[in-house]
Design brief:
Shape: globular
Number of strands: 3
Helix content: 40-55%
Structural class: alpha/beta
Length: about 80
């Protein structure tokens, strides 16, 4: 697995957002700001199907977040 800094730089340089359950990316976003934007699946100790459902259910909210230049992190919980 790639170190967090390498994933961060790859996403930043390509204009990607990161969807993660890893709190380290939250810390990077707070420290370094955006880009990339972080969608943090907080407390993610549930099955992948729950993640999928959460992301699908929050699709409009995620899209709005990605367009908001003032926000770096979106926290989602099931």
């Amino acid at each position: 697995m790639a170190p967090d800094a390498a994933v961060w730089e790859c996403a930043r340089s390509r204009g990607f957002a990161i969807v993660t359950a890893d709190a380290d990316f939250y810390e990077l976003a707070i420290t370094l700001g955006s880009p990339p934007k972080i969608v943090w699946l907080r407390g993610c100790d549930y099955p992948t199907k729950v993640d999928e459902s959460l992301i699908r259910d929050q699709a409009v909210r995620i899209a709005e977040f990605l367009e908001d230049a003032d926000r770096a992190v979106l926290i989602l919980r099931p």
